[in-house]
Design brief:
Layout (H helix, E strand, L loop, with lengths): L1 H23 L1 H13 L4 H8 L7 H13 L9
Amino acid sequence: MGSGIIGRAMLQAYRKALENANKTGVAHEAVNNIRRASKTMTEQEARQILGVTEQSTWEEIAQVFSYLHLAPRYSHVQC
């Protein structure tokens, strides 16, 4: 009998917490944080974009990154 009362009270408290979270926007913010986190690039995707392999040295990766990062800034300059 006592566990039933506690169970109902916990369920009621949980529902109230969800209701309050929806009112204050906390639930919406949590969903946005989850979406943002799921858009994190994996190491494999980064390597594919840079065109490097797992065996590439850090210097090679930095050189490719620098080139790709700076290229748009100097694309208007004619040699």
